[in-house]
Amino acid sequence: MAGRGRRGPAAAAAARPGPEAACASSRVSRFCPQCGRGVEPAFRFCPACGGRLPPPPREEEEEETVQAAPAPPRQQACSPAAPPPPPPPRSPARPGGRSPRKARAGPAVPLPAEAVLTDWGGRQWRLIRLLEQGGGGLMYEAQAASGTCPQKQSYSLKLDVKDGKIYNEQNFFQRAAKAGTVEKWKKWHSVPFLGIPSCLGFGLHADSYRFLVFSDLGRTLQSVLNDGLYQLREKAAFQIVVRLLDCLEYIHENEYVHGDITAENIYLNPADLTQVTLAGYCFAFRYCPGGKHVAQREGSRTPHEGTMEFISLDSHKGAGPSRRSDLESLGYCLLKWLCGFLPWSDELDKVETVVEKKEKYKGDVPCLLRVCFRKKPAPDALQRYLQQVMALEYEEKPHYEGLRQLFKKPLEKMKSSAYDPVDIKMVP
């Protein structure tokens, strides 16, 4: 994910000071953007999750507080009064007494085809063509230009500005998605496939871009839907959901949540439709650093991060996403894949309206299904999934196998398996 963002003393994590406290205090509290814990201003790394912290904000009070100057010596009556010293320069006042945040880097500018990038392992990768361009960066088809990787084989190379969200994604792969860890999990859970991308290399280019190299991911599910499908058949949708539940269980067991479940981050391989991959970890969030679940604290993170149509209510409110957040987003995706729209799909520019409707339908799943399916009957598996997920507490561990069984059973009645080739027609 996630994407995709450090901790300190328990007292700092317990409560974030309000505006009045911030003005009265000589310290400005900081919070780790990854796990939400409070950290000391001087810390460079979060002691809870180990992530790198952004530079600490300068405090206005320290900049503007001027020690009272000693009174000038009294002048003799016959001497003209010396002019007072000029006042020290003052910075423009800012709300909350904080320096402005560093401006976010702009979007990455596409590199020319045939450009060669060298990763930190010394291997070189040649860009072939630009495949996707969006808020999560640029996705290229690439080939190995040196090293032991087959040079005619295609790879997927993701590129973004150096300090963009791709840095968060790189941290996820280094911490939680090593190839050996993925293989052990597959054997332990007896699954033939697990759609966690294999990150083959990463590095910097021209000191401006950061890139990640993967085995060929194929095409995004969104691009397949854009070919004219717009909706999925029930069989294909259930197959994909079971695969994604496997991925989410793996991610969650490794202390992370994805944070941005959407068809743009789901890949299908046209040459092998048994392969379903969950990518796009720009918004991945370490919800359980060191085995301790972060506290639910609204406003501790930037609100509305991720794809507006599908993100969870936790993400809308600026709370760190938890396991239920990923499952809620997956439910919205499944609903749209089957119906073609969500009640808020046409109002994504009105954030408050989107949040209000998600709040409303979270407590009334049957009404949500009636609105989306109109006169058609809604799949029982979908209704039960949404009801179970919407009832989860913030820190509650989901029953992943129970959720998978909701979709596996109807697939069995269709004489199919979740791990068969996905029932979808697509072109390369």
Automatic annotation (TrEMBL):
Compositionally biased intervals (Pro residues): 81-92
Protein name: VRK serine/threonine kinase 3
SMART domains with a match to the protein in the record: S_TKc
InterPro entries, alphabetized: CK1_Ser-Thr_kinase (IPR050235), Kinase-like_dom_sf (IPR011009), Prot_kinase_dom (IPR000719), Tyr_kinase_AS (IPR008266)
UniProt superkingdom: Eukaryota
Region (Disordered): 1-26, 47-110
Native source species: Calidris pygmaea
Residue ranges occupied by any Protein kinase domain in the UniProt entry: 125-407
Pfam family, one: Pkinase
Taxonomic placement: Eukaryota, Metazoa, Chordata, Craniata, Vertebrata
MF (Gene Ontology): ATP binding; protein kinase activity
UniProt biased composition (Low complexity): 8-24, 66-80
Gene3D superfamilies linked to this entry: Transferase(Phosphotransferase) domain 1
